[in-house]
Amino acid sequence: MTERGQTAKAEETRNRILDGALRLFRERGFEQTTMRDVAAEAGVATGAAYYYYRSKQDLVMAFYLRTDEQSREAFANAIASSKELKKRVRGLIEVKFAQFAEHRGLLTALLKAGVDPRDPLSPFGEETRQVREDNIEWYARAIEGSDVSVPKEFAPHLPRLLWMYHMGLVYHWIIDTSPEQRRTMRVLDATLELIVQLLRISSLPLMGPLRKRALKVLRAFEDD
Amino acid sequence: MTERGQTAKAEETRNRILDGALRLFRERGFEQTTMRDVAAEAGVATGAAYYYYRSKQDLVMAFYLRTDEQSREAFANAIASSKELKKRVRGLIEVKFAQFAEHRGLLTALLKAGVDPRDPLSPFGEETRQVREDNIEWYARAIEGSDVSVPKEFAPHLPRLLWMYHMGLVYHWIIDTSPEQRRTMRVLDATLELIVQLLRISSLPLMGPLRKRALKVLRAFEDD
DNA sequence: GCGTATCGTTGAACATGTTCAAAAAGCCTC
DNA sequence: GAGGCTTTTTGAACATGTTCAACGATACGC
User: Fold this and answer.
1) CA of B178: how far to CAs of A120, A127, B66, in Å?
2) CA of A56 vs C1' of D7, distance in Å?
3) Does A191 touch chain B (CB under 8 A)?
4) DSSP readout, B37-83?
5) Which residues in chain A are closer than 8 Å to B214, comparing Cβ atoms?
6) Greatest Cα-to-Cα distance within chain B, rounded to the nearest angstrom
7) Band of the pLDDT at B207, cuts 50, 70, 90?
8) More exposed terminus of chain A, fewer Cβ within 10 Å: N or C?
9) Which of A111, A124, A206 minimises the CB distance to B115?
10) Do the Cβ atoms of B221 and A112 come within 8 Å?
């Protein structure tokens, strides 16, 4: 688990800082917590926090990465639990929600940094490529052997599309102020039905022209 | 034009601050420009900038609102120029792009604040309701009397949907690093074709179930 | 064990967005 | 034009994310 040549003690300090930070974030909120608080909570000097984390948001990113790592099993279960694509995707997304439930508001901090594509923490940037591709892989697995057959031309795009869809839902969930985020759940159900329905009918011969246009959209996104 | 009981001189100072700020933002970028710079450029003390603008991002918002006001005519022209929905929507979006061309990067500052729904500058918040509804109105006008007929159930939703679509494109345009934002233009063309095609076939009887599911999605977004 | 390079830690200094109490300038009434 | 109210302006103070030079500890080659 130790990444570079750092000692076990350092690794422990790193974790202590993160854990303390998360507690403070949860108790008072991200903005209300100062980096001096974070350092004090971990019993180190202010500068130490910056030795281990590049920025305040980087703490959130570390939290994100940690939970992501811890959820492999839950992801696998979500996929193993059913052959229905709808249920699988729903499962994957619900795992994400469950993980972040305690820190729902915290992710806005990541988003704020993330909308700027120059920011290293952007979900579309180079630095997050690995997590992103890993996550997309889960959607590939969800599709594989599921109850919907995907037109050949779409197959290479669908996992990434579902990942984008999931990102959109997570954003909706974060800003959802309805009680218990019911609205997000409603949207999740309704959109999943629509998506699966679209996939189902997309193979019909009648849908040829539509398929062609949809593919054109997908290709337009590719770099040239 | 003067909004409250302020003098013409104050109004002029307000504009001088904004104009100077925009020049600095354009020349050095948003982050590289300090509020002290902005104030100095306008020949006032630092605090004065905060008398007229709530925050640094508020300057960008003022710029946004200003260009939005100035573009009514261009919007009207875009709609008058054709009966084709595709061309009209394209026209509306191109007006936006043209307005912001000089300050493309600047809008990321607004987005950063905007992803947080608690922020007053959020495009989905209460404070921006007026501009938002005004903008949505333009899409309503674009649909009215155009070459596509919209199923009755969708009619009340479509303007807002197109506005959301336009927001997505603007975001894509902002972060688009391809030369001259060609990729955005490709995506714009391809998605517009798809949208219009979808609208065209949505009236077919065969599409009944799909229409129903799409409507369910729209309703899921509504508050209960 | 000793010297040295790397790792870890410190806390003050810095940069900059923002606030605020106080003063100045306008304006209005008498 | 004196007094008082509102608007505008000021610049220092504040808060806080971040940097940095210096110092201490640790491991490693010899």
Assistant:
1) 19, 20, 28
2) 40
3) yes
4) HHHHHHTS-HHHHHHH-SSHHHHHHHHHHHHHHHTHHHHHHHHHT-S
5) 194
6) 67
7) confident
8) N
9) A111
10) no
